[in-house]
């Protein structure tokens, strides 16, 4: 399940009132970058996968893994990296994934 970018306790949905809460297949690369950059995370410095205590970061990792086909164990390769590095990588894979269908 993929969660809302602005409120990671809720499922991502096109009916959410905030357009920043979801990625649409029609979003431009700039819109995708803006939405991922503004995605809610926490103040913990480094990336770790913990859906209960770190739902925002875990949601971004889930999105990344669902696109790349890698498992959450990939989070080990993001450990000791900053959230903005994860967000940058996620923007890259999202833009590449959506490019052929746009």
TrEMBL record:
Supply the EC number(s).
6.1.1.2
Protein name, per record: tryptophan--tRNA ligase
Annotated localization: Mitochondrion
Native organism: Phakopsora pachyrhizi (Asian soybean rust disease fungus)
* Top EC class, one word: ligase
**One GO molecular-function annotation for this sequence?**
ATP binding
Parts of the chain that traverse the membrane: none
What InterPro entries does the annotation carry? aa-tRNA-synth_Ic (IPR002305), Trp-tRNA_synthetase (IPR050203)
Q: Which Pfam families match?
A: tRNA-synt_1b (PF00579)
Q: Which GO terms describe its biological process?
A: mitochondrial tryptophanyl-tRNA aminoacylation
Higher taxonomy: Eukaryota, Fungi, Dikarya, Basidiomycota, Pucciniomycotina
Q: Which family does it belong to?
A: Belongs to the class-I aminoacyl-tRNA synthetase family.
Keywords, A to Z, come to:
Aminoacyl-tRNA synthetase, ATP-binding, Ligase, Nucleotide-binding, Protein biosynthesis
